[in-house]
Model the fold of this input.
Amino acid sequence: MLLLRDLWFDDVVGFPTENPAVYELYWSPSQILARAHPNVLRAQAFLMSHWRSADNNALISTSNPLSYADRLRMRAPGDAKFALGPHIDGGSCERWEEDGYGRGAVYDAIMAGNWEKYDPWEASCRLPVKSDLYNGAGGCSMFRMFQAWLAMSEVKGGEGHLMVCPMIKEATAYFLLRPFFSPGRAVDGPAYLQPDHWTLENPTSSLLQGAVPANCQELNPSLHPHLGLEDTMIHIPRVRPGDYVAWHCDTIHAVDKVHRGVSDSSVMYIPACPLTEANAEYLARQREMFAEGLPAPDFPSSNEGESEHRGRLTPEYVMKNISLEAQRAMGLVAFPAEAKGVREQERVVMRRANEILGFA
Done:
């Protein structure tokens, strides 16, 4: 396996510090070639095609996935340190803020009391969003339609596996409206969840349950009792090496608190990102980090990064050994803005991306 053969893990930063499960690696040969694999790119384009745009002139292309350099996880059997509880990435407080998700009116239907009209698959409203107003560790500057990973080991539920709450629309409406309600007097059992036990908060406070600046949105049974997380968080099916697992960017997800399996639970994080102007701007910065072997822009700098790692792939090698589509995904060559059959809206965003990347 290139990842283990070519890199010195003793020199790699990981967390948790005492027993690392996630490693600060972005440019190992295995990761670069996995992101560039034709099947991964096709899967990403297929997944993103399920999104729609209310604005026919929105500058977005879901048929041109972009490469987002993220880390990898190698969780050992018995591990209980890397225990991610239910959470949603892509910011926390930003979802209530005018300068965050409010820039695109993403959740306006929910805030207006018409949660049924909220469409989690509407893409154009997310283009102006600022999901990382506080420069938090692990924040993401790119619009990821899907978070995803590529399995490197065989894993099933209970073995450090992924859990999700599949009720995207309902769960989103609930946690966004939760700060406006407070429970009455203390009661136990089912009565605590009854509608007549909850009233509009008066006076209102600044408390946003589970949301802290510079962190992801966390959820738990105490702060979000009606979600029934003990029952609604379900394991995804068993995965084998090469399986690609993706979930909507607003999905509540978690991992098993304890890895009770007998072998490692390992994945490469490879999200699905569309071509947009903002994503192209990030890609330009990421391309520079790749050339220098440094951590991707969203992630903490670790001195020389991977610049001195034996076996690191150079841009010259990559240009000769990955497909043209994969080169575009990395920002190494121009997008085919003038190709026949391209929709005008896609043509415009490709032209703009080529300008941003220095190809026009």
Q: What stands out?
A: The CA atoms of residues 43 and 278 lie 22 Å apart. Residues 1-8 have pLDDT under 50 and may be disordered.
